[in-house]
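The freezer alarm interrupted the setup, so I double-checked each line after restarting. Inputs confirmed:
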Amino acid sequence: MSQYVPKKTDRFTFGLWTVGNIGRDPFGTAVRSSLSAVSIVRKLSELGAYGVNLHDNDLVPIDAAPAERDSIVSEFKKALADYDMKVPMATTNLFYDPAFKEGAFTANDPKVRAYAVQKTMRAMDLGAELGAKVYVFWGGREGTETDACKDPRDGIKRYRECLNFLAAYDEEQGYNYRFAIEPKPNEPRGDIYLPTVGAALGFISTLDKSDKFGVNPEYAHDTMAGLNFVHAVGQALDAGKLFHIDLNGQKPGRYDQDYRFGAEDIKANFFLVKLLEESGYQGSLHFDAHAYRTEDEEGVWDFARGCMRTYLLLKEKAHQFQQDAEIQAILQDVHSDAEGYAQLLAAPTAENRSKLNATQFNREILGSRGYRYERLDQLTTELLLGMR
Amino acid sequence: MSQYVPKKTDRFTFGLWTVGNIGRDPFGTAVRSSLSAVSIVRKLSELGAYGVNLHDNDLVPIDAAPAERDSIVSEFKKALADYDMKVPMATTNLFYDPAFKEGAFTANDPKVRAYAVQKTMRAMDLGAELGAKVYVFWGGREGTETDACKDPRDGIKRYRECLNFLAAYDEEQGYNYRFAIEPKPNEPRGDIYLPTVGAALGFISTLDKSDKFGVNPEYAHDTMAGLNFVHAVGQALDAGKLFHIDLNGQKPGRYDQDYRFGAEDIKANFFLVKLLEESGYQGSLHFDAHAYRTEDEEGVWDFARGCMRTYLLLKEKAHQFQQDAEIQAILQDVHSDAEGYAQLLAAPTAENRSKLNATQFNREILGSRGYRYERLDQLTTELLLGMR
Amino acid sequence: MSQYVPKKTDRFTFGLWTVGNIGRDPFGTAVRSSLSAVSIVRKLSELGAYGVNLHDNDLVPIDAAPAERDSIVSEFKKALADYDMKVPMATTNLFYDPAFKEGAFTANDPKVRAYAVQKTMRAMDLGAELGAKVYVFWGGREGTETDACKDPRDGIKRYRECLNFLAAYDEEQGYNYRFAIEPKPNEPRGDIYLPTVGAALGFISTLDKSDKFGVNPEYAHDTMAGLNFVHAVGQALDAGKLFHIDLNGQKPGRYDQDYRFGAEDIKANFFLVKLLEESGYQGSLHFDAHAYRTEDEEGVWDFARGCMRTYLLLKEKAHQFQQDAEIQAILQDVHSDAEGYAQLLAAPTAENRSKLNATQFNREILGSRGYRYERLDQLTTELLLGMR
Amino acid sequence: MSQYVPKKTDRFTFGLWTVGNIGRDPFGTAVRSSLSAVSIVRKLSELGAYGVNLHDNDLVPIDAAPAERDSIVSEFKKALADYDMKVPMATTNLFYDPAFKEGAFTANDPKVRAYAVQKTMRAMDLGAELGAKVYVFWGGREGTETDACKDPRDGIKRYRECLNFLAAYDEEQGYNYRFAIEPKPNEPRGDIYLPTVGAALGFISTLDKSDKFGVNPEYAHDTMAGLNFVHAVGQALDAGKLFHIDLNGQKPGRYDQDYRFGAEDIKANFFLVKLLEESGYQGSLHFDAHAYRTEDEEGVWDFARGCMRTYLLLKEKAHQFQQDAEIQAILQDVHSDAEGYAQLLAAPTAENRSKLNATQFNREILGSRGYRYERLDQLTTELLLGMR
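Predicted 3D structure, all chains:
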């Protein structure tokens, strides 16, 4: 059905590093050849993606001379134009090089921090040149294996100073990026600072230009800590801070798996798609994942197709949920506000406090009500199984 | 040694519900008799505690008539005076009664939300009468088993409305409480809103009177999700939001164990005590834990003594860490800022940006440095083992 | 469709304690009234269940006098007959009473161990009287909060002695039970002995009458530890040791949730049903779960219906998987044994070793193959979503 | 103190791959240079290690010609002799090469399985030549990302066939290895077969020559799944199956950290050392860990020293625990068997059953006893802190 064929308007994006992943892991070497950036752009465009995102060094080698850099960028821009692909988001690789082994923005050595900021300034230049509007900060090395080495308050403070510095650079250059912080609890560091979506939201309120900053939640990252990702995204939306999102698959309580979107916990993925669609979120739907290591290049494109298709299938399921009379009847019943208490609580006035104070509640009645959530969840399950 | 005997100035507190825990669990019935509030106050005072904290219904039954309530409170106040004990913190029980089975501040039924707010207003009155300065919100029932029943944005929004309502009540009554939100990821609900210290910090920035609000981190709660609690407390301190703290013991990735402080992960507990002491935190050191179910009343007091004693032992270890020449030499070396980069990054001026831009970094040199953290962590381990 | 209506031949069973669960949890009191054993039998029969299982004290109070016991049992047997319900499995409650707070078969106090064995002998009598063929051992209290109290070797040794004792009793009485050990990693104890299906399988090989013993894997239990339950059941089947199974829903890394079967991880549940059906397993399909605490009695029956219906829906999906040409083509391709190596490895003969030794393998060719598992898993996902 | 200086008689070993680890991880490149096998042997000998263990390809490149292989082996044997170092354990690298990306002994492709067995035969030859007595099987690639691709029963069956084949080869060659299976729950595969010590023990009982097989438990591996490693080792000892052990540090519920022994959970490490020492275990104490990525070569040797020293410190603590009068008094009290029930349960005779049946137990008395485990665990904590 054509409704499940990805279109530009679906705003699907992939990182160069995702379909470009060569299958190296801590216990094994590469299983696939590198794909050129240009070939990735072409193929993703064919598959219906809207854009491609990148770290500076996904495109330009860390030590490239200016001329080499310019030639690479120019060829890449041509490919973007040829295949009608955007670069909606850019970011900095502050994790691969040994220079960052003890941290980047939070390193104990101030010289490392300075180098990390300089590298980011240049990567921001690159992103701007490619038209990126969102700039992501994933602090993969910002953490510790032992807290003997660093006061966590210093970690947070240094992080803030670097982001304040870069926000000022953004303003100076007129880039007008939306900065999106991407949290992760651990791996590759023992523990990473700003481990969760919530931690990033809390941190943002301490920044100089907090309006410029939002979050880039990744399904796998909060899920690694066993947290409810739908709740995390809901909080980000409530705060007006969902600037970008990374979709993939992950089991709780283990290493970063970065599976195909939809590969794990269909129900949670459904609620996520439903929330994104109902919220009117207009940013990229970015797949930060990679093909299983069992795959060759054909499998990589199977993987990319699967991410997009499952999103569209779940979007249709969200639509069905809204149209399902029995589901909606249960929801309407449990949300009913026959006596106007919702209104009362929404306005913290003296009059409402006094009204509330005078009310007599019957807690036995409140406690004896059945909510029919077993039925509601079962109906959801059957809807997901296509058996409804 | 007298330095390990708890004193009032150590600000150790327990909840009535902690030493009063009767050992019921999901699979077993009570193993100990209830202790009266007055006997708890007396015994804790003898053991060197500074104060005792409570939920409204720890002291006053949920359906007590006014006269009964007043008589209980009066007797309890007399005990506080007799044994020189304070009530630094109070809170509301919004989780035990069936009325709250679907949530309290975030319930779908607005009448339940209204009852929860009213109950809290009365519990705030009680706390104020007992001299409490900190008021804790632990939303134990604020969550879901299935996200079919509620949009997470609604959960967050209702939570905010209720807290805004109560902050206005606080102002009206002149209580001047410091409100402390206590996060928890799950249990007794499948997933709880505001699951982590970070999530609570993020949420606070969206409240009407956000200055009145801080956090009450609990060791067990962030640890259940496998997060680094020391980092979480560090972030709260950095934001000026550490209003209260709950100390106990917990293994990651399992049910809420609420063990004696120090029973799990000695190294993490050490870094926590070190951070609290170095930060100048002046709030209560509250033990939110209970004795193993294998214990009778004697074991309960063993438990209470152990919590306090281990804190004092680790405080002494933190002092030793500061005095240890080899440890301090490693730390001094790795933090050195010989070339002034720390200063440069601290001020996001055009001049500094330009200076940074012009700097040449040698990433090979940065990457080849050894940090001696294996040695540092080993020294810490040996210090903890008393073998140094 | 009638194929999704439970029938006796589906062998679905529930525990009295499951639909009878009154919604107590560590932080809240009961939300539902108790249901009588007889009314449970009647209602489950109406819903299509095959049988009902029980702990001794689900039916007979722990201190019942013989006459009371006999009258209860007699009334219960009449209900079983009236409603054509079986008791395929029985077990002992060795966890609720304070006597077992330090363990039952593994308690340090030998008198507690003796009492636990005696209680089990009597519960075996009860089970036999009710026609139970499988007897389950769930050692809920067999564990520790601190390993200071017990050498783990003693725990294992005592466990074995008690089971050997009871196996001899079984033989003496001619009950001819199939004994099924049910593992769990933790809760209500800090850590429980025999934490996983694997641990139980390993332990069985050390028992006097190991042929009488198998396992009763519970989805929630291995899943709490983040283990792959399908693999665990596969190992039990491979060893001929799957004597019983407990089906429910659970998220990894948290407290024991005991959700409705199918409520969590649809894909894992699908592979589980597929494995059970393909293996020819003929034991009970027991739902060891309970309704959300938000539910009243109506919700309890919604819950029971949902467990059975989802099993039947997934069974149909397993059938579709077998019929799906594209899926089967991928599987056939990756399992192909064109050169007969499978046969060679199956027979550890000198000839085969010598043949193998002489073979030249081309590891580059082996490594370059793509397995098409992204496609295979995507097809599975779409089949599960009813979009195929 | 000389008692904390490692000696040959302490039987400490390291893998070539442990101190030789160059600090590559999923997000970063190498930070340290390779060390030659000979230099590792020399340095470890200086530090007091007893031996060094290896995978075939730690020493000999996967494609080495026979002459190259022999020359490498000969040089290595000379170094072993020169520095008085043993190779107590050898193993096969069945995870690094792309050939094994879909599994080795459990691969769907029978040719891959055959190659894996052949490679292991040759690695067994190498190990035998170097004097290894224990041969380890770590099935790092034996697992799945999606269970669509393989029936778990097939995985187990193939694993068994390969091990049976190799056991026959061992017999044929007269190597007389003790085979030790090393379980791991996940990483690098989504889920790994034989995920826990228990699963390996269960599996062993299904092998042709099960007496030849035992386990090689690794602290990090069961701990990743949040299981109690001390209990796992206790079960292995009880079954007479502890053939080897891998010591390191790990936090539950996250990626494989392989920290220095003692770096995580001091109390659990203490109980582990205590168990090993009290059990009379005489195998190698192998450190399967590596230095933090922040370290240069100096840090690597700090790491190696730390592993051994912490073991010796904890061994001394275990001795103190045995000598501590207050600790021993509590233990003696709770284990008392005044009425002879331990003896009764140890013999499953008709007489004992009848005696037990006739006994009257008072469960209120059993349930009211206090066990003083809070005190016991607190004393243990203080002993560990050197404050006792």
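Quick read of the result. DSSP finds 16 helices and ten strands in chain A.
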